[in-house]
Design goal:
Largest sheet: 3 strands, mixed
Helix content: 40-55%
Number of domains: 2
Radius of gyration: 32 Å
Mean pLDDT: 78
Distance between the termini: 42 Å
Low-confidence stretches: none
Number of helices: 3
Shape: rod-shaped
Strand content: 15-25%
Number of strands: 5
């Protein structure tokens, strides 16, 4: 696809008829583009473009099916579960450190600031 000229039709070269071609003029594509001649010489959309459009259409349908199946919601639930596990682990670590009341009061905010910095939210 990247090698196709997008600004115009293909550059073609007409080859003079030979005795083997039964009087028909052959067409040779010298620079493929989005619109190329078919095997009959009619200008048609390049087969690569047709297949790319079909692929993107199928990809979009698959993405829509995944969304409809709740994959996105499941990913959100998974992220929430992971966040809860991190919070429980941090609180357990704070409790096990035998911090002074002042340190224990500051610890959640300090850890929250660190986690925001790691995730790029702070």
């Amino acid at each position: 696809m990247a090698g196709l000229r997008g600004d115009s039709t293909a550059v073609v070269e007409f080859v003079a008829p030979t005795s083997a071609s039964l009087g028909y003029t052959d067409i040779v594509v010298t620079e493929p583009a989005l619109i190329d001649p078919s095997h009959l010489g009619d200008m048609k959309i390049n087969p690569l473009v047709v297949e790319y459009r079909a692929w993107t259409s199928e990809h979009a349908k698959a993405c829509k099916l995944a969304l409809d199946a709740g994959v996105d919601a499941k990913l959100v639930q998974l992220a929430q579960s992971e966040a809860q596990n991190v919070a429980k682990s941090v609180m357990a670590a704070i409790n096990d450190l035998d911090l002074t009341p002042e340190q224990a009061a500051k610890a959640p905010q300090v850890i929250a600031n660190i986690l925001r910095a790691i995730t790029g939210e702070g």
